[in-house]
Specification:
297 residues, alpha+beta, 5 helices, 15% helix
Length: 297
């Protein structure tokens, strides 16, 4: 168990280009009720991603201290103390709007651009993982990165709560062999229990497997996420854009009727995968359509 500083008024909203005016509290965190095996959960695999405003407000202020987001992660190396976060934030939004899973291979960092990929090495035992940064934190003095329960488990410091680590930025093709080796050769964890009265000797049995997220690197979005591609006072203009977008994607494209402002809104979705959303945003811009933005409905 560990303690993590978190913005109860939604740090995610703060970092999605909003003002930092919410209360900040200290909460206690924990992992699953029983130990689980995470050896089958793959490390994050670096890929090229479009950097958006989501989670990249700079500078930003938390607990009276101001932080800046780096313009690029290339060449970044840092050593310090890592911690992990679990149940308290499982299922909540991260700073870029994705859904946090304590069984994923993601991380929170104060300064790296979102998204970034880093290799984290436990300096006490040499174990390594590759994770994707999609959140902000930790805001404890002296801590440099907050990892998921799964990442901390692979690195071997779940029970300790913290560990000295080296954090190194990696990109597509960089050190992938090391990442894959870490993910595929991890030995399933075991635990000891007492068998029936026929034998008093303790035996080792395999732990239950942790539920693996669809994407270990994150990407899951709330179920009510849409891309809004335009708003028009003229229905025919909205329907024209609807038709153009519909020719480019199998996702539902809808024209929302006016509510209070007489505007017809063209929305795509719902979209529950940030990879799909980012690719669609790029596709629309490449076809010289209005720059879309995320809405929740």
């Amino acid at each position: 168990m560990l303690t993590r500083v978190r913005d109860v008024g939604a740090l995610a909203a703060l970092l999605l280009l909003t003002a930092c005016s919410s209360q900040v509290a200290v909460v206690k965190d924990s992992g699953p009720k029983q130990a689980v095996d995470v050896a089958h959960i793959p490390d994050a695999v670096p890929r090229h991603e479009v950097r958006t405003k989501a989670g990249n407000k700079s500078p930003y202020t938390v607990l009276g201290k101001t932080y800046s987001v780096l313009p690029d992660s290339k060449g970044f190396v840092e050593e310090g103390i890592a911690s992990w976060y679990g149940n308290k934030f499982h299922g909540r939004k991260t700073s870029n709007g994705e859904i946090y899973s304590m069984y994923g291979m993601t991380a929170a960092h104060k300064n790296l651009p979102i998204p970034s990929y880093v290799r984290v090495t436990n300096l006490d035992n040499g174990r390594q993982v590759v994770v994707r940064v999609n959140d902000r934190g930790p805001f404890h003095e002296g801590r440099v990165i907050d990892l998921t329960y799964a990442a901390a488990s692979k690195l071997g410091f779940v029970k300790l709560g913290t560990a000295p680590v080296r954090v190194e930025a990696v990109g597509p093709g960089d050190q992938l062999a090391a990442a894959q080796t870490t993910a595929t050769t991890a030995v399933p964890q075991t635990q000891t229990r007492q068998v029936s009265s026929a034998s008093s000797s303790p035996v080792s049995v395999a732990m239950p497997k942790a539920p693996a997220p669809k994407h270990s690197a994150g990407y899951q979005l709330p179920a009510n996420t849409f891309l809004q591609a335009g708003a028009f006072s003229n229905l025919s203009a909205a329907e024209n854009l609807q038709s153009r977008i519909g020719a480019l994607t199998p996702l539902p494209v809808s024209v929302m009727p006016p509510v209070n402002d007489r505007l017809y809104r063209v929305r795509v979705g719902p979209i529950d995968n940030n990879l799909v959303l980012m690719d669609l945003r790029t596709l629309l811009q490449r076809h010289q359509m209005p720059a879309p933005h995320i809405v929740y409905d």
